[in-house]
Amino acid sequence: MFAEELTIQIFADGADVGGIADLLANPLIKGFTTNPTLMHQSGITDYEGFARQVLELVPDRPISFEVFSDDFDEMGAQAEKIASWGENVYVKIPVTNTSGASSAALLRRLAGDGVQVNCTALMTTQQVEQVAECLAGGPAAYVSVFAGRIADAGVDPLPIMIDALKIIASDPQIELIWASPREIFNIVQADSIGCHVITVTHELLKKLPNLGRDLDTYSLDTVQMFHRDAQAAGFRLEPDE
Predict the structure, then answer these.
(1) Is 7 helix (H, G, I), strand (E, B) or coil?
(2) Which one of 13, 39, 61, 238 has the minimum C-beta count within 10 Å?
(3) pLDDT (0 to 100) of residue 122
(4) Catalytic annotation on 30?
(5) Using an 8 Å Cβ cutoff, are 9 and 31 in contact?
(6) DSSP labels, 68-120
(7) Are 65 and 91 in contact (CB under 8 A)?
(8) Cα(62)–Cα(173) distance, rounded to whole angstroms?
(9) Rounded distance, CA 134 to CA 42, Å?
(10) pLDDT, tens digit, for every residue of 203-223?
């Protein structure tokens, strides 16, 4: 499969303004996401300033910004403010707060208020069921299931992702995001089950041109790389006397 044959939407996941600007020219990138961790890693301290700068670049594709409070009332206020920044904005709400309390009531209220939500950090079908119930009948929304982290726990994420698609099937305004992929093959997996969206880091996106490569050619390129790097390093083994 080649990248151009994919039906899944690829959203670039990152907080590098320059990287976002570069990716705008890629027709395969259908949207953008970020989160407080990525923003912190990029050295961002002005949350709203960063968001508005990005929105000037991305006025017409879905883009998600996450709340950062741990208090549900304050989360709600942050969500309403973030949502006001643009019609293409989705507000990321974690499935629980840091104490494990459910965000269900907040999700219901925001959906009722017409806020486009991206509920994030889900890892179980039970969480998907609860979130889908909260978002049912509301505006466009995403449910982000962290398939990569599920796999990191030694659990096959595919059955969970397939069940998640079944759970949200009756609400077409809710789309499933395959979050935290670890390799390009995850894009193929997500596409094969009919997942709507996959979020891919800027670094992993650099490997996207490898999709569909001839494996014999890829093997030869790898051998040539090893040889080239050995020469560049000046490696030598003196013959035994």
Answers:
(1) coil
(2) 238
(3) 98
(4) no
(5) yes
(6) --SSHHHHHHHHHHHHTT-TTEEEEEESB-TT--B-HHHHHHHHHTT--EEEE
(7) yes
(8) 14
(9) 33
(10) 999 999 999 999 999 999 999
What pLDDT shows up at residue 62? 98
Contact status, residue 164 vs residue 176, Cβ threshold 8 Å: yes
CATH of 3-213, one of 3.20.20.70, 3.40.50.2300, 3.40.50.620, 1.10.10.10: 3.20.20.70
Burial state string for 108-121 with b = 16 or more CB within 10 A and e = fewer than 16: eebbeeebbbbbbb
Comparing C-alpha atoms, which of 145, 152, 103, 100 is closest to residue 122? 145
Tokens of 163: 């069940």
Nearest Cα to 212, choosing from 9, 26, 3?
A: 3
User: Which one from 30, 81, 92, 207 is the annotated catalytic residue?
Assistant: 92
Residue 34 has a pLDDT of: 97
In the predicted model, residues of the chain with pLDDT beneath 50 are none
- 84 token code pair: 């006001």
Output the pLDDT for position 109: 98
Strand partners, 145: 122, 178
DSSP state string for 179-221: -S--STHHHHHHHHTT-SEEEEEHHHHTTGGGTT--HHHHHHH
Which pLDDT score is estimated for 77?
Answer: 98
